[in-house]
Design goal:
Layout: H1 3-6, H2 10-22, H3 32-45, H4 48-52, E1 57-61, E2 70-77, E3 84-91, H5 110-118, H6 124-132, E4 135-137, H7 141-160, E5 168-174, H8 182-198, E6 201-207, E7 221-224, E8 226-227, E9 229-231, E10 233-238, H9 253-264, E11 283-289, E12 301-310, H10 315-348, E13 360-363, H11 364-373, H12 379-388, H13 394-406, E14 415-420, E15 428-429, H14 435-455, E16 459-462, H15 480-487, H16 493-496, H17 501-507, E17 511-514, E18 518-519, E19 527-529, H18 530-535, H19 537-550
Helix pairs in contact: 2-7, 5-6, 7-19, 8-17, 9-10, 12-13, 14-19
Length: 555
C-alpha cells in the first residue's frame, strides 16, 4: 500500500481503495476479473505484516476456469495460539455496463458520474445525493468493491494490532459471484485444506455484500444471519406440432409455457411464509421455443425456467409444489385446446378426429426411470448430447440433454419434463435449536446494541439476506435425502455443476452479512453511502470479529 494511503484516516483510506477498485473494470466473464485480483494481491503485499510473512498471502487458481481466474487469500495469525478463525469474504466481479447507455464510458469513473448526476434533474433524489458529496457512484461501487475495501482496511488494522485477536483472521476475495459462483465454490477446497493443515475452527464468516432500504424513508441498517437459497426449476415442454393450416389440431408448447408463466410468475401464493422476512416469489428468467428458424409449422418444443428463492423449504418441497402447479396448468391447457377444436368442428361441420389432448407431467428423474423400464439406453444419448454441444452454457446443455431424452419416447406424447438447472445456491441461517448459533446471535446483538448507542444508527437483525450471495456455499442445511431430491433431477450435475456439497457440509461455517449501504445496486445510478459504509461499518465488523473470537464460539 502506498505510504500516503496507509496514513490516511480510515474513511478516506477506504474511499481511496474503493475508487481505485471501481476504476478497474472487472465485469463478470472478462479478463478484468483476473487483473483486479492481481491488483488486490499487490495492495495486500505492501502491508508490513505480509512483507514479514509472505507465505500468509497467496493466490489460488480456479480449476478448469477458461479465463484463469484466481482467488486471493490473506491469513493473519492472532496473538493467541488458538484455532478459532473468522473468515472475511467479498466478491470483486460486477455486472456489465450497458445500462449506462450513452454515458457507458463513465461507468468506472466516480468523479465523472458524480458530475453528471449533479446536473441530472430527471431523478431529483439521485441529483440531490450527488450534490451532497456523501455518495460514491460507479459500477461496483456498491456491489461490492466498497465491501472488499472495508475488508482490506480491517485486515490492515488487525495485522498491525494482532494482540486484539484471540484467534485468526482469514480473508478471501473472489470473482464470479454474479454468474455461476465459481469463485466461492472453488475457494471451498482451499478453506478445507487450511482447516486440515492448520487445524482451524471457522467460528463464522462475515460477508459485507450491500444492503439497501426496504422502503422509502427506511434508514434501518439490516444485518443478516443467513442467506436465501436459489433454485432454477426448468420446464422442457414437448407438444404436437402442426402446419398453421391445421393449427387447431395441435398442442402448442408455447401455449403451455404461457399458462405456466401465468400461473407461476410473481405468484405470491407460492412463497414461503417466514414472519418478519423479505420473501420473494418465483420469477420467469427465460421463455422461448425451440424453432431455430422461421417456417409455418408450430413449434415442437418450448423451454422456460424460473428464479425460485429458497428460505426454509427444501428442493423436494418445491418440486412437489411445481408438479402440482404444472399439472393444473396443463389441465387448463387441455380443456382450452379441446374446446377450441370442438368449436371448430361445430362451425365447419367436419367429422371428429381421433386426437388426444392429454399432456403428461413428469420429473426428469421419473422420466429417465420410465425409459430404463422400457429397456431404452439413455447413457449413450446423454453422452452424445454433451458431445454435440461443447460450448453451450449449463442451462442450455441441460435442455439439450432433456430434449434428446424426450426424443426417445416412441409414443411422442405431449409432455412437460420438470428438472433443476444450474445454479443451485443452498439456503442457510442461524438455528435457534443450535447452542453455537444462539451464541453467535447473542454476540452480534450485543455489538449492535453498543453501536446503536455510539453512532445513533438503527439496526435490525434479519434471518435471510434477501438477494443472492456467496455465503450460501459456506453451510448446507439439507439432509442427504433432501439433497438427493435435487441432484437426481439436475441432469449430469457432477459434470455440469460440480459443487462440492460434502465439503460444504464438512465446513459448515455460519455466514453473517454486515453490508455496505447504498442505493440502486445493478442499476446505472448505483451508489454507496460513504458516512455509514466507510465510517461506521468498519468498526462494527471489527467489534463483531473481536466478540466472535474472544468468545471462542463453537458452532
Amino acid at each position: 500500500m502506498k505510504k500516503h494511503m496507509h496514513s490516511l484516516p480510515e474513511p478516506e483510506r477506504i474511499e481511496a481503495l474503493t475508487r481505485g477498485l471501481v476504476q478497474q473494470a472487472s465485469v463478470n466473464g472478462t479478463t478484468g476479473e483476473v487483473d483486479i485480483i492481481g491488483n488486490i494481491r499487490h495492495i495486500l503485499a505492501e502491508f508490513p505484516y505480509f512483507q514479514e510473512h509472505p507465505d500468509h498471502l497467496w493466490l489460488q487458481t480456479l480449476p478448469d476456469d477458461p479465463l484463469g481466474r484466481q482467488n486471493v487469500f490473506a491469513f493473519v495469525a492472532g496473538n493467541a495460539d488458538a484455532a478459532n478463525t473468522v473468515l472475511y469474504h467479498a466478491h470483486i466481479d460486477t455486472v456489465g455496463v450497458d445500462d449506462y447507455g450513452r454515458i457507458k464510458d463513465k461507468a468506472f469513473s466516480p468523479d465523472a458520474l458524480n458530475n453528471f448526476f449533479s446536473t441530472y434533474d430527471a431523478a431529483p433524489r439521485v441529483q440531490a445525493e450527488a450534490q451532497s458529496g456523501d455518495w460514491l457512484f460507479g459500477r461496483g461501487a456498491l456491489d461490492m468493491k466498497s465491501g472488499a475495501a472495508v475488508h482490506i482496511s480491517n485486515v490492515l488494522h488487525f495485522s498491525e494490532n494482532r494482540e486484539e485477536l484471540e484467534g485468526n483472521l482469514l480473508l478471501v476475495i473472489n470473482g464470479d459471484e454474479e454468474s455461476e459462483h465459481h469463485g466461492m465454490t472453488g475457494a471451498l477446497h482451499e478453506l478445507k485444506r487450511l482447516q486440515d493443515e492448520k487445524n482451524l475452527d471457522y467460528v463464522a464468516a462475515i460477508n459485507n455484500d450491500f444492503i439497501t432500504p426496504m422502503f422509502d424513508g427506511d434508514e434501518t441498517k439490516y444485518i443478516y444471519t443467513g442467506t436465501a437459497g436459489k433454485l432454477l426449476p426448468a420446464f422442457h415442454i414437448y407438444g404436437r406440432e402442426v402446419h398453421v393450416g391445421d393449427t387447431l389440431a395441435g398442442i402448442d408448447p408455447n401455449f403451455i409455457a404461457a399458462k405456466l408463466t401465468e400461473r407461476l410468475h410473481n405468484n405470491y401464493r407460492l412463497t414461503e411464509h417466514v414472519p418478519g422476512e423479505l420473501i420473494l416469489p418465483p420469477s420467469c428468467l427465460y421463455q422461448r421455443d425451440t424453432k431455430p428458424f422461421y417456417n409455418v409449422q408450430t413449434a415442437p418444443g418450448s423451454h422456460l425456467y424460473f428464479n425460485y428463492f429458497l428460505y426454509e423449504a427444501t428442493p423436494a418441497d418445491v418440486m412437489t409444489q411445481l408438479v402440482q402447479e404444472t399439472q393444473q396448468a396443463c389441465r387448463e391447457a387441455e380443456t382450452y385446446l379441446k374446446d377450441q377444436f370442438e368449436a371448430f368442428l361445430d362451425t365447419t361441420g367436419l367429422p371428429q378426429r381421433d386426437l388426444s389432448w392429454n399432456i403428461d407431467v413428469t420429473t426428469y428423474d421419473a422420466y429417465v426411470e420410465e425409459l430404463h423400464e422400457r429397456g431404452i439406453d439413455t447413457r449413450s444419448v446423454i453422452e452424445q448430447a454433451i458431445a454435440d454441444n461443447p460450448d453451450a452454457d449449463t442451462r442450455t446443455l441441460s435442455f439439450r440433454i432433456t430434449g434428446a431424452l424426450q426424443e426417445l419416447d416412441p409414443d411422442k406424447r405431449a409432455r412437460v419434463i420438470l428438472f433443476f438447472a444450474p445454479p443451485f445456491l443452498p439456503h442457510n441461517y442461524l438455528k435457534d435449536s443450535d447452542p453455537g448459533h444462539r451464541q453467535i446471535k447473542a454476540a452480534l446483538e450485543a455489538v449492535l446494541h453498543q453501536h446503536e448507542a455510539k453512532t445513533g444508527e438503527s439496526f435490525a437483525v434479519k434471518k435471510f439476506f434477501p438477494y443472492l450471495a456467496d455465503g450460501s456455499f459456506l453451510s448446507l442445511h439439507e439432509t442427504k435425502s433432501e439433497l438427493n431430491a435435487l441432484l437426481q433431477n439436475m441432469p449430469e450435475w457432477e459434470r455440469l455443476y460440480p459443487v462440492p456439497f460434502e465439503t460444504i457440509q464438512s465446513l459448515d461455517i455460519p455466514s453473517i452479512n454486515m453490508g455496505v449501504y447504498g442505493h440502486d445496486g445493478h442499476k446505472w445510478t448505483e451508489r454507496v453511502y460513504k458516512p455509514y459504509s466507510f465510517g461506521v461499518l468498519p468498526g462494527l465488523i471489527r467489534d463483531t470479529t473481536r466478540q466472535l473470537l474472544n468468545g471462542h464460539i463453537t458452532a
